[in-house]
């Protein structure tokens, strides 16, 4: 009887949760997101702040895609792997669309029964918080949500997030009801990029990420049956004050590894779906379970992929080879599973190592082994490991004595089902001359399964230089470790040696792009005989028997090397093959080594960080510890509190500074603190008060929702306004009703909104001018630039004579920024005009005959016949306007300059030169540029006639000069003429026709001829100039790589860093602003593009992408309207005109090694750029036209110079130097030097405003 009762209890305890265990939600309680796809809530002000990874947030956004965010909303689904660009809490981040079905509810509450439920969740699972008393719970609930498509009726998800806070510490509870996670990604069309699989976890503002088990994989469907509190479908985490070295705090007595091991020791009925892949079956054995892929799929059962479907592998490679650093070298591989072909490429490799890296073909052969075509009963690497394994290769070159060690970690599938890996390479390899083409013949490699989960291989590979005939022999010893299923009984073929047959090898190095390529076709088969069955008895200590051909060899184990047929320890510390941190010491051990952080640092030795002085500093719970190099750690009270940091109390005098004009400041009865209270007839939180509206309820049982808390009341409070024209409707289960004065309206995304009726708005204008978000003041000096302090009767007597900052007549804005009105022109670009939309908004549109965004407009190339059009274009009517315009002929498309180029003309990543063709080599599946018959050259940069150049033929135009080039002679038109050198015509410029210039422009001689330039105070392309508008100011622009931020000089709870542009795969490095047009320019080294956007993030576009590779530094010459940049891959200093995009390479390769920062001084006509070449770091300078180049500072003054900036008030160049860990300045004329800051960790970006210096730091 007792045993029966116990079984029943266990079954009941393990049952998953249902919707009944959600926190109270739904109709009559919550606010609701409008229906649609890309929708988010307005900013929701929190009554009780939320502490999230040490940061305090007073507002939150609810987003459609299963995620809550701080700082900004996420209205668009970002199809990328975490992290997201903003601090986030994701319950089930995926591409949700509620247009047809599903609802998203949200609210903040302090109801007693809700607080009690939250209190139990915390205290029962975090025993150190036995006395934790929450004061607020923010609840967000997704009910029956799905994605767009024809299958939405059948698959719906429901889940909930509860943020539990007491103002100083925060917990998050995630709830997933049984059977209510029915889809994990939106179905997409074949051939397109699939949506990322659903992700769940937390993203901190500093970039830390914690994901739930299974996040981003097919296993995320098991989130309903897993738990971290032994209650399937429920998860509780502490996310408030998390140490910098931590990512999350889990409940007591929870260990995910132990939970996974325990699952595998159960039966298939109990945990099969939790262990096996969606396309696998579970098999019970005596001690536990194993998984086997279904028919039509293959893998190890935990990971399965569809037969014969191509796959990608990607990752990064770091390390040191031949004393040359490898920093995040890209590894990309493409696998054709049907026949075992693999193509692997390394990009962004150092040019000095490019040809030599062909010798590391083992990087490609591992991918080949992983997906080799199995013959007979043999299994390839993926069938054994599922793409989750560690690989080590020791490569020895006996002729030169070079040795290199490769350590790889294959970490399985990512959110797009691609295989990911990390690679570390250290040692030396023979130097292969640049331009050499290596080849390796077909070969066989033996793979010995030493024991389950351990494979070793020994082989010899011979490489030959096809040009010189030189041979390179390498001896390769490889070790693979993985986790096999330990419960299956051994099979007859389980430990038989395997032979990998590698054919159709291809090696290559492309100087354009610094790309190394490896290509192989691979098959794997089992050996009939096992020579090690006898041979392993002959191997000594620290060695293993490995099959080699029909025989065997004894191979030293990892960490040992052969010495007269004995295996002795390798001293990795002396050999330099360790991966210890720069701030750690290496200690050799028998067969291994250990990294230990030095004094003053902490970590695992592989990664060491400075020990924070704040560790032992005790601050008040309402304060934060700040590092102070001069005084030591200092406690600083949080905003809204005052004191010495070790003791902080509420700053009562500041509590009512943001009261609504329709509110009064008085002392609270319950807390004895001051706060804002709405006046009679108004309702709200005191900082935002709206007039109370009494309406008849639509349904008798309808209850209302309070902005701050949910309580039982009969008043109806409208949701927060999006702006003055559009607000959200009040929605219940049956319909949405607009507030009085608003009418129902659907936007272009089919979202339910309410639009302001066209009442007389003039009386509202003054009142709206003094809204609750405006800045208080006593005099004009208290307000931002161009704003004034105004006083109004709208303020109550409790305002103590305070006024509000407003924009005066002639200016417009929100008083934080007041911009001079420009009238009906609204600062449009040339060939554009301003129109007034129905909503009263002024926007720029291109004039008739032009196309563009209103700021950059290009001619439509109107025409009457084909002779009016350029090459590869013809005159035909435009479908939208019926106007005859020049359009590209079939097979051609317009580029950024409106030239018609061949559609898809790139040849394996290159653009073939004139007189060259793109040829295809079917044997190696590679396309390449090759000069046409009768021409010589590399096919990419140029192809010139054989034996008939102008030095012999004397066939140049009379206005051209026969000029020697690198390999031949070429006709070049003289100054003032244009053409190909054989035909030269006079240039049409303003020297000959002054009317080409605008009335507000001058014709000036430049290095490229005569050009129209707008006069001071005007901007444009010289042909069209307009008066410069006043732009916003008083902020910084910074980047963390994925996002570009606008950062106010003074960060407050109301003004904080806001992203203006984000991209999942973007790496923004060089940044500058064009203060004349209010544009921000930045270089994206990942996207190989220079981009730009307006100060507020609008008008985003790609400025330059053609022939841009890695724009690390960027600077804007606002006077001459040019952008200068450094390209660290092309090794160039380049310039392009902002208006015409005409560009020029000022310097290329010669004397350039690692260019980074660049700065422009228009007044002196100079450019400066840094070069952090470790062998000879320097800062160079030159005139803007490329003349008078010289070294401004050499290695005696700089070590690792990064960004540059001009100190305008002192006329000097300043720079951040990561080698000296300092910020320094040098007088441009006097060369007088000053150190601004020292002991910086790793300074990078730099900006100067008056006497204040700002810099970013990569490490802190």
Structural summary, described in words:
- By secondary structure, the chain is mainly β.
- Among the domains are: 19-254, no CATH class; 255-304, Laminin (Ribbon); 308-527, Green Fluorescent Protein (Beta Barrel), CATH 2.40.155; 529-569, Laminin; 570-611, Laminin (Ribbon), CATH 2.10.25.10; 614-650, Laminin, CATH 2.10.25; 916-945, no CATH class; 1035-1257, TolB, C-terminal domain (Neuraminidase).
- The strands form 33 sheets. An eleven-stranded mixed barrel has the order 17-18-19-29-28-25-26-27-21-22-23. It has a six-stranded antiparallel beta sheet with strand order 1-6-7-8-9-12, with helices on one face.
Give the spatial strand order of the biggest sheet: 17-18-19-29-28-25-26-27-21-22-23
Secondary structure class reads mainly beta
Query: What coarse outline follows from CA principal-axis ratios?
Result: globular
Characterize the largest beta sheet: strand count, sense, and whether it forms a barrel. Answer: 11 strands, mixed, barrel
Q: Looking at the chains present, what oligomeric state does this protein adopt?
A: single chain
Uncertain ranges: 1-13, 695-724, 759-772, 792-799
The helix fraction, in percent, is under 10%
Estimate what percentage of residues fall within beta strands: 35-45%
* Radius of gyration (Å): 34 Å
């Amino acid at each position: 009887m007792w045993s029966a009762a116990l079984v029943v209890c266990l079954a009941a305890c393990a049952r998953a949760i249902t919707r009944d265990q959600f926190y109270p939600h739904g109709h009559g309680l919550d606010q609701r997101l409008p229906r649609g796809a890309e929708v988010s809530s307005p900013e929701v002000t929190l009554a009780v702040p939320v502490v999230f990874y040490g940061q305090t947030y007073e507002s939150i956004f609810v987003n459609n895609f299963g995620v809550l965010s701080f700082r900004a909303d996420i209205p668009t689904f970002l199809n990328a792997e975490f992290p997201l660009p903003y601090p986030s809490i994701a319950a089930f981040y995926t591409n949700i669309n509620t247009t047809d079905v599903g609802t998203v509810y949200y609210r903040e509450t302090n109801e007693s029964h809700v607080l009690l439920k939250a209190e139990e969740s915390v205290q029962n699972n975090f025993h150190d918080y036995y006395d934790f008393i929450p004061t607020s719970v923010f609840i967000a609930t997704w009910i029956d949500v799905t994605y767009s498509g024809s299958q939405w009726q059948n698959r719906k998800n429901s889940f909930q997030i509860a943020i539990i806070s007491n103002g100083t510490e925060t917990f998050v509870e995630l709830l997933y009801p049984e059977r209510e996670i029915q889809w994990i990604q939106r179905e997409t069309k074949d051939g397109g990029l699939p949506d990322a699989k659903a992700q769940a976890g937390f993203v901190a503002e500093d970039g830390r990420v914690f994901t739930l088990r299974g996040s981003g994989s097919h296993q995320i469907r098991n989130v309903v049956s897993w738990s971290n509190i032994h209650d399937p479908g429920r998860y509780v985490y502490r996310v408030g004050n998390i140490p910098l070295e931590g990512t999350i705090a889990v409940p007591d007595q929870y260990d995910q590894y132990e939970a996974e091991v325990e699952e595998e020791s159960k039966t298939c009925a109990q945990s099969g779906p939790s262990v096996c892949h969606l396309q696998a079956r579970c098999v019970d054995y005596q001690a536990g379970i194993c998984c086997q892929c279904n028919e039509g799929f293959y893998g190890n059962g935990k990971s399965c992929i569809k037969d014969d479907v191509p796959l990608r592998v990607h990752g990064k490679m770091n390390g040191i080879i031949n004393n040359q650093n490898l920093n995040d070298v890209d590894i990309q591989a493409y696998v054709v599973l049907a026949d075992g072909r693999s193509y692997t490429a390394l990009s962004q490799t150092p040019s000095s190592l490019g040809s030599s890296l062909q010798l590391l073909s083992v990087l490609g052969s591992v991918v080949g082994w992983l997906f080799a075509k199995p013959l007979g009963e043999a299994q390839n690497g993926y069938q054994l490991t599922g793409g989750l394994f560690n690989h080590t290769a020791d490569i020895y070159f006996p002729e030169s004595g070079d040795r290199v060690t490769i350590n790889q970690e294959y970490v399985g599938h990512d959110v797009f089902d691609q295989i990911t890996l990390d690679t570390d390479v250290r040692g030396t390899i023979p130097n292969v001359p640049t331009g050499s083409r290596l080849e390796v013949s077909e070969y066989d490699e033996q793979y010995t399964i030493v024991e389950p989960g351990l494979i070793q291989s020994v082989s010899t590979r011979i490489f030959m230089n096809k040009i010189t005939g030189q041979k390179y022999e390498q001896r390769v010893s490889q070790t693979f470790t993985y986790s096999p299923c330990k419960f299956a009984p051994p099979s007859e073929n389980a430990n038989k040696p395997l032979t990998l047959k590698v054919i159709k090898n291809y090696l290559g190095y492309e100087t354009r792009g610094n790309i190394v390529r490896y290509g192989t076709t691979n098959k794997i088969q089992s050996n009939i005989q096992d020579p090690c069955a006898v041979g392993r008895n002959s191997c000594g200590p620290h060695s293993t028997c490995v099959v080699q051909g029909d025989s065997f060899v004894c191979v030293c184990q990892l960490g040992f090397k052969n010495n007269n047929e004995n295996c002795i320890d390798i001293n990795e510390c002396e050999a330099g093959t360790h991966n210890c941190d720069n701030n750690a010491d290496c200690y050799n051990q028998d067969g291994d080594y250990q990294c230990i952080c030095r004094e003053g640092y902490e970590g695992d030795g592989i990664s060491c960080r400075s020990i924070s002085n704040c560790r032992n500093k005790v601050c008040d719970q309402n304060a934060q510890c700040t590092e102070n190099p001069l005084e030591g750690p200092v406690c600083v009270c949080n905003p809204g509190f005052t004191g010495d940091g070790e003791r902080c109390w509420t700053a009562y005098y500041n509590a009512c500074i943001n009261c609504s004009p329709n509110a009064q400041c008085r002392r609270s009865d319950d807390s004895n603190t001051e706060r804002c209270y709405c006046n009679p007839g108004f309702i709200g939180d005191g900082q935002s008060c709206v007039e109370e509206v009494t309406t008849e309820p639509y349904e008798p049982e309808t209850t209302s929702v309070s902005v701050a808390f949910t309580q039982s009341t009969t008043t109806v409070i409208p949701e927060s306004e999006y702006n003055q024209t559009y607000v959200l409707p009040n929605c219940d289960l049956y319909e949405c009703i607009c507030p009085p004065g608003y009418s129902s309206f659907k936007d272009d995304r089919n979202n339910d909104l309410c639009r302001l009726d066209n009442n007389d708005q003039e009386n509202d204008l003054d009142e709206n001018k003094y809204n609750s978000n405006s800045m208080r003041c006593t005099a004009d000096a208290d307000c931002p630039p161009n704003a004034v302090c105004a006083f109004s009767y709208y303020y109550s007597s409790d305002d103590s004579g305070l006024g509000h900052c407003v924009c005066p007549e002639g200016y417009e804005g929100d008083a934080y920024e007041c911009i001079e009105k420009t009238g009906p022109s609204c600062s449009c670009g040339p060939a554009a005009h301003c129109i007034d939309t129905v909503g009263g908004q002024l926007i720029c549109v291109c004039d008739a005959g032009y196309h563009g965004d209103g700021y950059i407009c290009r001619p439509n190339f109107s025409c009457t016949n084909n002779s009016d059009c350029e090459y590869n274009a013809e005159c035909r009517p435009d479908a939208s306007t019926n106007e005859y315009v020049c359009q590209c002929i079939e097979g051609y498309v317009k580029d950024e300059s409106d030239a018609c180029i061949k559609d898809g003309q790139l040849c394996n990543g290159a653009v073939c030169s004139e007189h060259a063709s793109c040829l295809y080599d079917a044997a190696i599946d590679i396309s390449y540029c090759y000069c046409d018959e009768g021409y010589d050259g590399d096919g990419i940069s140029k192809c010139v006639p054989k034996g008939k150049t102008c030095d012999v033929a004397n066939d140049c135009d009379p206005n051209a000069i026969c000029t020697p080039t690198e390999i031949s002679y070429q006709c070049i038109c003289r100054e003032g003429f244009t053409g190909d050198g054989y035909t030269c015509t006079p240039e049409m410029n303003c020297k000959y026709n002054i009317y080409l210039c605008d009335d507000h422009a001058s014709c000036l001689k430049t290095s490229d001829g005569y050009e129209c330039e707008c006069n001071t105070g005007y901007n444009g392309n010289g042909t069209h100039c307009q008066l410069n508008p006043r732009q916003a100011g008083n902020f910084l622009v910074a980047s963390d790589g994925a996002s570009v931020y606008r950062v106010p000089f003074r960060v407050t709870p109301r003004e904080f860093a806001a992203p203006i542009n984000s991209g999942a795969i973007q790496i923004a490095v060089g940044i500058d602003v064009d203060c004349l047009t209010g544009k921000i320019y930045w270089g994206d080294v990942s996207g190989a593009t220079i981009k730009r956007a307006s100060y507020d993030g609008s008008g985003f576009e790609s400025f330059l992408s053609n022939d841009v590779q890695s724009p690390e530094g960027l600077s804007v010459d606002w006077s001459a309207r040019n952008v200068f940049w450094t390209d660290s891959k092309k090794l160039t200093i380049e310039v392009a005109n902002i208006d015409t995009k005409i560009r020029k390479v000022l310097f290329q390769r010669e004397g350039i090694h690692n260019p980074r920062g660049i700065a422009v001084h228009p007044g002196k006509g100079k450019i400066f750029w840094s070069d952090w070449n470790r062998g000879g770091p320097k800062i160079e300078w030159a005139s803007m036209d490329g003349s008078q180049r010289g070294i401004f500072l050499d290695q005696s003054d700089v070590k690792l110079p990064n960004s540059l900036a001009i100190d305008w008030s002192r006329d000097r160049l300043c720079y951040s130097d990561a080698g000296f860990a300092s910020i320094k300045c040098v007088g441009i004329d006097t060369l007088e030097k000053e150190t601004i800051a020292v002991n910086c960790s790793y300074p990078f970006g730099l900006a100067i405003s008056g006497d204040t210096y700002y810099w970013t730091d990569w490490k802190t």
